[in-house]
Write a structure and sequence with these properties.
single chain; alpha+beta; four-stranded mixed β-sheet; 12 strands; 20% helix; 21% strand
Length: 211
């Protein structure tokens, strides 16, 4: 995604470049499908089609896949290589195996939303999977995974943006969103301090960071 150099603060003109030809973004901005980025310098981008245009901000995004380890599990996987799991994060048909984080495709709610390959999902899924694996060994009830809250926070040179929900609604912009992103990157995504109480609190599957 490229921001036109002529725009000064927040972009009003985007150039979406995708090397594959299916799909497009419903946007007044130009979509260039079937073209890749060949050359990028400080002020412009040149595509494989030969087209060149100026850009002050370039956002590069690539697909991700689950670790190859998932292929060793004889179970159903999605197009990203993630194992399909039930509400307890068990892998159906494979006794004693739970999957979590980027290795699992789990339903977050009963509205058709599924976990993404992101730290905010992986952290909570890990707590549920660990709890349920231990519960199965101890013969006590497991807890079904659920995660209704979903947020995104993007911080670029021109500013920052914080949205909430699977159908995003903007809640913060500017310095407030930038501060939140810094807190996410420096505190929330890291393991707890090496103290028993902090570790046990972080491992509680029902623990939710107040957003």
């Amino acid at each position: 995604m490229l921001r036109s150099k002529s725009q000064k603060r927040f972009c009003k003109r985007l150039h979406l470049v995708r090397s594959i030809k299916f799909g497009s973004c419903p946007s007044p901005s130009p979509n260039r499908l079937g073209a890749g980025v060949e050359v990028m310098d400080q002020s412009s981008v040149t595509l494989s089609s030969g087209e060149r245009f100026e850009a002050s901000t370039v956002i590069w995004a690539a697909g991700i896949r689950a670790a190859p380890l998932t292929a060793q599990i004889p179970a159903e996987r999605d197009s990203f290589g993630r194992l399909m799991v039930d509400s307890d994060l068990r892998v159906p048909g494979v006794q004693g195996v739970f999957a979590t984080g980027d290795a699992a495709r789990a339903a977050c709610d009963n509205k058709g939303n599924y976990s993404l390959m992101s730290c905010q999902h992986a952290t909570r899924m890990g707590a549920f999977a660990g709890n349920n694996a231990a519960a199965e060994l101890l013969g006590i009830p497991t807890k079904p995974y659920h995660q209704k809250a979903y947020v995104t926070c993007l911080d670029l040179e021109a500013g920052a943006l914080f949205t909430r929900g699977c159908e995003p609604k903007v809640e913060m912009v500017g310095d407030v969103a930038k501060k939140t992103k810094q807190e996410i990157n420096t505190a929330w995504i890291y393991p707890p301090k090496p103290h028993r109480a902090a570790a046990l609190a972080a491992a509680d599957p029902e623990r939710v960071i107040d957003l």
